[in-house]
Amino acid sequence: MGHSESRKSAKYTTLLHKERMENWTEKEHPTEDTGPLLRAPLEQRLDGGPQDDDSLQFESSATSNSRSQQDDSSLTTSFGKSPVSSSNRRCEHQTYPAHMVGFRSSGRGRGLPVVEPFDICLSGRRKSSTYEPSLTEKNNGKKMEHCIKETGQILRPGMVLLKSYVTLGKQVNIVKKCQELGLGPGGFYQPGYQDGAKLRLQMMCLGKRWDPQTKYEERLQNDYCEPPGIPNDFSLLVKKALEDSHALIMEQDGARNVEDILPGMSPDICIVNFYTTNGRLGLHQDHDESPESLDRGLPVVSISIGDSAEFLYGDKRDYDKAEKVLLESGDVLIFGGKSRQIFHGVKSIIPNSAPPGLLRRVNIRPGRLNLTFRQF
Ligand SMILES: O=C(O)CCC(=O)C(=O)O
Ligand SMILES: [Fe+2]
User: Which residue stretches does the UniProt record annotate as biased composition, category Polar residues (predicted)?
Assistant: First the structure.
């Protein structure tokens, strides 16, 4: 498939397959178009919110299926620039359609729907300070760095799995950062299509906005917010994972020019997904990045945190022939070079599989957090 053709086609192309559609997306019936949605400030929360198996936090509301599909925003991206905090991020309208919980009765947004932001952590006891790893954990982290050659696996040319790569302390900090960003402007929402089909996950983009319907467009439906930037420590982790993968390829394949097999990259986009335990994602290719990035095979670096996932991958969109690998909390999966455009997806999330040590330190919901870093 040529690039121009690739770029035009949907990222989650599974959705185009009618027979798979019911399996991999949630078909909701949108009510009438209600216009831009307002993100509810936390102190103004109304009753109601997300309805799924794991949403213990909120009651469902009759209006929670309503999604507006406006397309009149002009979005300034933060592509390639330094991180922006949620307080000074530009947001023309305070918005996003996570979960509609009511209507504004007064002020500038009078009559507009109010939405409940999606919190990847459950309410209740919260850890307020940044987690400091114990000495043992610090040592484990060091040990991990040393034995990367044992814990790393080359799944196919350009595709590397680094098992238990992200230390518990770093996982805790990633969850906290994603929770904070996810509750702010441009935070988590459930992406979908105009016809009401929805992806079975919550999504937030860092660096540059991507949406299944609009792709990497300046003008996004429903969204008027500049995306948060990629936190610097996230980028450093990605860089280190790529360096360690290069060392692994050199060691195992004896390759002299590892960049030919797995090119390096500097991430300027991160798509953050949160899957509750009934979440999933159909087989698709990531091919909306620039033709240059795809031609060079600049890798996608994926970090998994929380419950484990059955991850599928293969050369074709063929569920029967796809290979399966378990992605556990702390694993890093990289696919670049010849594997850059493999089909991949999440078959299922395995309930109660998150590490107890993580759950002791953060109140992450049952489910899985996944971050995929790319260079546009
Ligand atoms: O959750 C995952 O492991 C994969 C996510 C993914 O493929 C994507 O966001 O494009
Ligand atoms: Fe993907």
Answer: 57-88
